[in-house]
């Protein structure tokens, strides 16, 4: 019939039966007159033409609903919202004796917790630490680290795994830490007086890692600065 990816079987009498469809389509073959490959519409997806079917004769039905953490533009297009998040296909029972190949989130990028509600497969997503907070950790389903059934944990200071933005920096959420002028994020540094101005703001290009600072400073004042916290002290 010229439909790319539509697979038919023919009986000895020449009758055709649709038996397979391309990815992003569901097979509908309860009648020979109405058999076709149904494309998944926007907001849904499928990687297996037998999704949500019972037996070998499949009725007209809907594709899998897109989860919160992805954008589904129809057929088998599935684009995660959080760049760097990892998703994995799993064959799950979806009720009424039906099964479907569902894509589930298994790892999130740094600065995100992983949200998976066992009772709601469409809730899967990576929730980012909100502005003024940050995290250098990532949610991982296989280890159970930073995995929650709701992102509401991020809204309460007593339950959030995110950390408050350190002094001397600006945090836009996730793992974003932008040091203010004269601050840097990183290892503790030792700065000779020549690297610092009268206000105590130092140029870290003229400073040294604290553990490597063994030069004689003479009458100059060596200062050290802790990355992230912005703490100062005489060296």
Layout of secondary structure:
Blueprint: E1 7-10, E2 16-20, E3 25-28, E4 36-39, E5 44-45, E6 64-65, E7 70-71, E8 79-80, E9 86-95, E10 98-107, E11 112-117, E12 120-128, E13 133-134, E14 147-148, E15 163-164, E16 169-173, E17 176-179, E18 189-191, E19 208-209, E20 223-225, E21 232-234
Plain-language structure description:
Helices cover 0% and strands 37% of the residues. The protein contains no helices and 21 strands. The protein starts with 6 loop residues before the first strand and ends with a strand. It is elongated, with a radius of gyration of 28 Å. The chain has a four-stranded antiparallel β-sheet with strand order 19-18-20-21, with no helix packed on it. Strands 12-11-14 form a three-stranded mixed β-sheet, with no helix packed on it.
Overview in brief:
This protein has 235 residues and is mostly beta strands.
**Average pLDDT over all residues:** 85
Let me know the number of strands.
21
Tell me the major beta sheet: 4 strands, antiparallel
Detail the poorly predicted runs. 213-235
Share of residues in helices: under 10%
Provide a count of the helices: 0
N- and C-termini, Cα separation:
82 Å
What is the H/E order?
EEEEEEEEEEEEEEEEEEEEE
Class by helix and strand content? Answer: mainly beta
The percentage of residues in β strands lies in 35-45%
- The main sheet orders its strands as 19-18-20-21
Give keywords.
235 residues, mainly beta, four-stranded antiparallel β-sheet, three-stranded mixed β-sheet, 21 strands, elongated, disordered C terminus
